[in-house]
Amino acid sequence: MATNDLLEKRLALFPVTTTYSGAAGSATLRIGGCDLQALADRYGTPLYLFDGATLDAAAAAYQEALQRHYPGASGITYAGKAFMCKAIAQWAQRQGFWIDCTGAGEIGVAVAAGLPRDRILVHGVNKSKEDLEAAVAHAGTIVVDNLPELYRLAGLLRTGSTTPQLWIRVRPGLAVDTHIYRQTGQEESKFGMAPAEVVAAVQFCQTEGLHLTGLHFHQGSHFHDPAPVGPALDTVLDLLVELRGQTGWYPEILCPGGGWGVAYHEEELPHPSIDRYVEFVAQRLVAGCQARALPLPTLRLEPGRSLVAQAGVAVYRVDTVKRTGARRWLLIDGGMADNPRPALYGARYSALPVTAPDRPVAGMTWIAGPYCESGDVLIEGLVLPALEAGELLAVPVSGAYHLAMGSNYNGARKPAVLWLREGCAYTILRRETVEDLLLRETELPPDA
Ligand SMILES: Cc1ncc(COP(=O)(O)O)c(C=O)c1O
Known about the structure:
By secondary structure, the protein is an alpha/beta fold.
């Protein structure tokens, strides 16, 4: 591929505001009107950037698609597990979204962000007592994963003064096409209840007078073909017919989860649109309800990655250029501690130099981080210009499941995160320090 074609394709992975300007050979990448070289010089690297305009565009794509394709009531819940902090929770609230929190930690962040109870929904496959107590104290909706959890929750609700809505998570027995570690809907998955257990759960809620309003399923994360959602919807609607007959209960809200994928690499472009996914789900739900003479429930989608991934860019500094046999390595100052996805599931990424991205490419490059694992290779074999030590590398599609799954391995300090909009950069997470790492530490007592 000619250098310019490759550059244009790679730029399409970046936030929608990405440009490069300056004389040929010395142009720099800009996002949200901010110069990436200047940001890295000021805030250090690794540095994570979120572009407000790209987040807004993804949110609008979902909202417009729901309005276009679903005749009933609808809404979006942002899956906070993709990237959670106060700023993103506040952004989600401004969009009119609910936020899905997994456990007491994410609930605490959403509460600190000022989200009201009716915007907080709680998920979790094995909610601890602390998680359930936080959910009862702060959430408007709790999604129940299994029967033992339902019984524990009922005990808490009997003694408490709040009455959150409950949803039941059903396991439809069908996953989407994605990496096995990200599949959740299959029969042997640890998530959710089998249809027969759902019947028992509904009957239990009726006996206990619990406020059961919804049914949820989620088949997996990062899929590109919505087809498997169709049979899962059919399974769930058949279950609803049975439930209606046996218990008289019918959900106000149906949530087929999230999971819509994104392109991480130029070879995955063009990626099918959010509109295509929403259209498929909406049409199948409408047709399925019509065929079974069921009323249309409120449709709530629960995307994470497809809302935030493209808005995020990771900027690293190349510290060392190294050769091993035929390989040219760029050793950069971040890797599996801020982005474990390549090590976890062989995720493929692309990248561009921050300065002169329009330089001719020089050959295959391997990009690795500083951590003591041979698996700490961020990108295996990418055609790039010949970057030198000291240069900056921008990795697109870094907004989802990077920092959220990051670690302090080798004492890594979590990167600073900036929110970019119209030439302004706002620090939404400052860089972690050694002092932060020591906050939980105590001395070893002499007699221990
Ligand atoms: C229950 C649930 N909902 C929503 C999501 C969001 O998935 P994604 O970020 O791929 O849209 C997940 C992710 O695994 C999930 O487990």
